[in-house]
Amino acid sequence: MKKLIYTIIGILSVLNSNGQDILVKNGTLITITDGVKENTDILIRNGKISQISKGIKAGAGIEVVDADGMFVMPGIIDAHSHLAIDAVNEATDPNTAMVWVGDALNPYDVGMYRALAGGVTISHAMHGSANAVGGQCETIKHRWGVHDPDQLRMEGAPRTIKFALGENPMRVHGEGRGITPRTRMGIEQVFRKSFAEAQVYIEEWKAYNSGKVKTPPAYDLRKETMADILKGEILIHCHSYRADEILMLMDVLRDYGVKNITFQHVNEGFKVAPELAAFGAHASVFSDWWAYKFEVYYSTAYNAAILSKNGVVTSINSDSRELIRHLYHEAAKTQKYGGLSDNEALRLITINPAIQLGIDDRVGSLEKGKEGDLAIFKNHPLSIYAVPQKTIVDGQVRFDIDKDPADIRIDIDPKETIPAYIETQTENGHSCDDGCLQGVHELLGHKH
Amino acid sequence: MKHSTLLTFILVLFILPFGNSQNSNEPSKITSTFVIQNVHIISQAGQAPIFGSILIKDGLIESKGTSVNIPFDAEIIDGDSMYVYPGFIDALSHTGIKKEEEGERVKAKNPGNPPNDLAGITPDKSAMDLVSHKEKSIKDLRSSGFTISHTVPYGKMLPGNGSIILLDGESKEEMSLRENVSMYAQIKGARGVYPGTIIGVMAKWRELYRSAEFAKKHKSQYQSNPVGLKKPSYDKELEAFFPILEKKQKVFFEASNALTIQRALSLQKDLGFELVLADVKQGQNALDKIKSSGAQILLSFELPKEEKKEKEKDGDEKEKDGDEKEKKSEKKKDKIDPEKEALEKRKAESIKNYVAQAAFFEENNIPFSFSLVSGKANDLHANLRRMIEAGLSEKTALQALTSNPAKLLQIDKVAGTIDKGKLANLIMTDKPFFEEKAKIKYVFVQGNPFKTEEKKKKKKSEGDKDQIDIKGKWSYEMNIPMPNNTGVILIEKTGETFQVSISSADDPTDFEVIEDIELDGDNLVFDFDVDNGGMQMNIGMDLNFDEESFEGTVTAGQFGTFDMNGTRTSKDPKNN
Lengths: 448, 576
Prior knowledge:
The structure holds two protein chains of two kinds. Chain A is α/β, with parallel strands linked by helices.
């Protein structure tokens, strides 16, 4: 038995043998918030960046990584993904605010390791877009190698929730079931009704807790969550495409005093960029992906650049197990389409998504006191020749291109059938749909 | 055979009642006094056997040891130096309960807020109401040494409450030992309605639990002083939580894989109920959390099948010289795909890990019992032996089947050991139980003796090891009361192994093909998966062949094992 455990530990030791202290020497540091520093060292102690300067001497027992000729940037952050969760859509109701994908974390999802191989250290594991109000999401750190789902959570990160506009909720509930929302107007009503109910719910509990009413109101987890949004405790991330709907949701939020929102996909964001900036809304977009459904035809690869230049905090996300492996290429596209500077382009996958997830005080740039999440590249990350070499999470090397086993899986199904030849698996591709509708095809009767 | 057809056919099986034959071995009840003589008595796990007798009177153990008085009315059973153990206790299963048909999906008016029964929320449903003394599972478990089951209803997230039953009786009333002792839970979503997924079930759990807390508080306030209070409404689902809130009952959570264990533990951490993790198969990965949670553990005794090792032929080939031979061996080498080999190695490691789970828990001093929610009872002996080979001690294995579940189910005053005054629940084996060839000869439940049936296996004489030529066309029949229980099996020989094609009478042209099956003497064992839009099931067949006929069993996933037989229709599989 012991032998076996050692074998397993042996396989994973590649990833876990490095403590929480690490010194990365002589790299070109792309700090994001404090310029580029050539031939500079960065020391991580107890998982946090403790020093950035030249000529740092490694103390005893500190692992040293020689990054001479390499580029060192903050770990990439993906503000929209569905990695490492066993359930994406609880598509049974237009409002499922009570569910939380953090309940279905799966540390064995090998997609997380592949993301690490693309320099991504944090992703926003989101509920899908089947419902107008979807479930709560979870910001995870890619601590590949752990067995405990709780260790994936980025402790202390703000709560977030998925909202969705347009065709997905209309299709699932209106077309699929003949209930509200059948139209874009119906979706607005789902939001307004839910917020209004939550306001009443808050008052009911106030009355009970102050002793005015003796009988407790019916406990309702959906309303609890909606109430927490009203109280500003939960950040909204809303699946969106069309400009008119984006404006609609901002109106709704204004009416209910809700301030924190990031529009996801937001393909027509370029049309309402000033309005988004005025509201303080953020945008998380694809670099150049559209036309996969009717409402996503009017798009441009200049979206990220236009939004950025208008002062909207913008990020580029993946929503895909494949795109997440080269978000640095996705960011680079904004230099071709929009002429963003290196730093502006890299902000799209570092500090900006961190702001959108409410974790920019902890990650997203190389600064003393921030968490030790690094991506080390051969060649500049925005170069077409960029190759991630090592990805470090909290001072631990979780991906190392020189120690990249053929089979990195942790959990092996003892009943798996091993095919005579190895087939490539079909991932969620662009051709069909975005990843947001996972798990609802059955409900749609396999209609796309 | 079309996947969907096969699946439907198998699902249909479980709607239909089995032709339940009366137990032919049932004793004539002339007396309720028995003396078992000349046996090695292992009164409890870890105790050295004592050679002596046991006196059973009116279902209870009257006395045991070397000086037992034989009453005049006693029926004497000569133990013939056999071994007697306390009867096994199954800590969780669906014994005696028929699995209900899933049926047509009922369209809920509002899928987001369906009635509780559609949502799979029936914690008030009593296992005792569903038990039938005629169910085959009762006899199956008994034949494997079990005398008591903690049985729970089938269902979705909250299927109902558990009851403890004796595995003998003419009615469920007779079988009942204790009713409504536990709450059974699964992370299993409803079909097309809320909660439909893991995240839905988790959220609903929290909401129900907290609602129950408020309901309970409200009710007790109302009972002590109703003045000025709104009348609490009766809610049977929430009231089913009250014993859980009061910690009078534990939640038995089906948690076979590592992640379900973690999910059940996080609900327990948030809500604070007393938890029993059941049907655990991957507990190693959550050791620290299990320890700190104080949750109790029921391990599944089901194990993944050991992979058959490929015959090593390389050695022979290498010794031979000559160009031709070298070329041949090179060809062979080409065939070995290193990627496939590496995958197989990791799979084998994974299987080992499952087998070693019980030993791991023992090593870490975490007591456990066995549950039978999944797996076939008649695999118990073989699987226990695999666990013991992997380091589990016999003492702990026996505790997990006797004293531990007795304590957990709070029936240790009446069961779990062989002691005066306890229920006469015993098993008698011809050899020490954990020996390879040990067979259970008698099982006593409440003092009623059951002689276990010998499996009718045709034995071959030692020298006769020739394989039977099974190539050809066979017709088969499954012992299942339904129309399409017949079909055709074509067996072709491909090199050293066989290829089996199987079809069912409802679509005789549609064959399921299984390749690379080895014949062991006259025994052909193979399995295949059927998949119908996500609903997967493994069908296993274990057939013993004669020149002109075969007989054996078919196992349909967790639904059970059925007899199957057939006859040869042609020596040529291609003959029409």
